[in-house]
Amino acid sequence: MPRKPRIKDINTESLAPGDPVTTVMAMLLPVHSAMTLEWLVDATATAAERTVNAAYTFVYFEEDDGALAYRAPASDTRRRGVQRAIDAFGVSALTSKIDPATATAIAEALESPTPVNANAGELLRGLVDDGSATKAQAALGVDSVSLVKLESAGERLGALLLLHVGTPNLEHVRLLGEHVACAAVNLRQAQAAPEASTADVVRTVFDARKTEIELQRELMRAERYRREASICVIEATNLRLLRERFGPGLVEGLYDRVGQALAQHSRDIDVLGQYKSSGYTMILSEASPEAAALATTRLLAIAQEAARDANVPGLELHLAAGHATYPADGKATDAVFAAAERRMYAAAA
């Protein structure tokens, strides 16, 4: 007998007594914070797993001709999970365009006002023959398949195909579909009209290697003209924990927002770049130790304003900052960075 995927049955154990919908909605919060459609698919799969015991989730968006186009999740973990289901069914129909005209059960489900739940052979008729579908369902250890349309303001956007362990709560399936549709509409609108400043900011944030090269040049100029030069280092100390809890999509989006805020409040002569993989370095041209200390206080306050996602409880970067100045704290880049790090760690202690 195939071993079923280990998914906790939240429908009977984890939901707060008397208030199941509120609990489900809390689990859907990350769906609304996805930065791309691929990460929306990832967040949807996680929410489906936790709210309706969906071991495998397929997300489709409707095209102009009515076909349903499969959208792959962003993370490798979710991609591998979906691939297991694809291999079990032995067809590419689930991950290519689905034409409802050739899949009558799916066409009927798309017209239904409520989610449709059935066995794989029934719901996937026209895509997979009944015998193969039944074998695949058994091999995957799932008990049923649901389809819920994604619809917003009367417009159909696509559908979710969910492979469940156990019997799903169809009201929770419906609620999941509504939230994913709402998030997809908001995300598409945001992508259709991006702020011009965002593109400009991206071009001003150097990677860590480029930042070090720029600092070397700045120190050479400072030495040549006998001037001072400073840096400010700001690090997110809880990145790893947040990635484990919320996933990389949400956390990296918040991390990027901090960088955008810093770039928008930097001087034209300053340089902003990555610090390791967990923070940012600002090269403060011709700044004295006193000026660097003031700038660090100001930049940390700006970063902290951008380091929290009000829509996702608990999603907040913990930031620490330090500064250093050439030549007082050292004459080489590693010495200047080390001095800034010492002050940062002392401030965080």
Can you describe this structure?
The protein has 13 helices and ten strands. With 349 residues, the chain is of the alpha+beta class. The chain has two domains: 173 residues, Beta-Lactamase; 152 residues, Reverse transcriptase/Diguanylate cyclase domain (Alpha-Beta Plaits, 2-Layer Sandwich). It has a five-stranded antiparallel sheet, with helices on both faces. The protein has a five-stranded mixed sheet with strand order 6-8-9-7-10, with helices on both faces.
Q: What fraction of residues sit in β-strands?
A: 15-25%
Name of the CATH first level of the largest domain: Alpha Beta
The number of domains is 2
Helix proportion: 40-55%
Order of helices and strands: HHEEHHEHHEEHHEHEHHEEHEH
As for the CATH topology of the largest domain, it is Beta-Lactamase
Oligomer: single chain
User: Which word captures the global form?
Assistant: elongated
* Major beta sheet summary: 5 strands, antiparallel
**How does the helix and strand content classify structurally?**
alpha+beta
Cross-sheet strand order for the largest sheet: 2-1-5-4-3
Number of DSSP strand runs: 10
Using only CA atoms, what is the Rg?
25 Å
Flag low-confidence runs.
6-18, 194-203
> What is the name of the CATH superfamily of the largest domain?
GAF domain
The CATH architecture term of the largest domain is 2-Layer Sandwich
Mean pLDDT: 85
Q: Please report the number of helical segments.
A: 13
Amino- and carboxy-terminal Cα gap: 54 Å
